Amino acid sequence: MDNGDESDMVNCPYNKEHKMLRKKLQQHILKCRVIYKDTVQLMICPFNKAHLIPEPELYQHTKSCEDRKIIVQYQTSAAAVLTEDTRHAKIESEENWDDDEDVPDYNPQVYCSQANIVREPNGLFPSQRKAFIKEENRRKFGDDYKEEKKPPKAKSRVDSRPAPYDPRMHNSRRH
């Protein structure tokens, strides 16, 4: 198993005993934040959300944070200047799709109802779901599709149970 390079390993800011791969740090921080929420108070670095620092050290960290360089460089850099090398002529085209008037708008619901696509009755009430399934079966199998009739349900649990054994009834048949 490849555990990664030693330089790719980092310590948890909540518990220095926890050591993990840098790519697993964010996931680990979420767990440790809940565990140590009452004991360890850490501030989030304004330049990198993965940097969690105790409050007394935050000021010093913001002055020396390695990710600060990226923000400062972005803020102080001049805007890009267009030169003759970077400019290009406007590209003209004879084709304009906005001019096509006879093309109907695309409606995914209409397309799915006409194509051979399996649809799910998500977010419907039970009666709507039943009607949707019936309509889908009619769409898939044709208009002559007949819904299978299910046997009627028993009206109560007592009606569906067999009668208990009655020895008197059994003895009366012998005579």
List the helices and strands and how they pair.
Layout: E1 9-11, E2 19-21, H1 25-35, E3 42-44, E4 52-54, H2 55-64, H3 68-76, H4 108-114, H5 126-141, H6 157-160, H7 167-174
Antiparallel strand pairs: 1-2, 3-4
What composes the largest sheet?
Answer: 2 strands, antiparallel
Could you report the average pLDDT, rounded to the nearest whole number?
Answer: 81
Global outline: flat
Helix and strand string, N-terminal first? Answer: EEHEEHHHHHH
Number of helices: 7
How does this model look, in words?
- The longest helix has 16 residues.
- With 175 residues, the chain is mostly helical.
- Among the domains are: 63 residues, no CATH class; 34 residues, no CATH class.
- The chain is built from 7 helices and 4 strands.
- Strand 1 and strand 2 form a beta hairpin.
Structural features:
single chain, mainly alpha, two-stranded antiparallel ribbon, 7 helices, flat
Short overview:
The protein is mainly alpha-helical and 175 residues long.
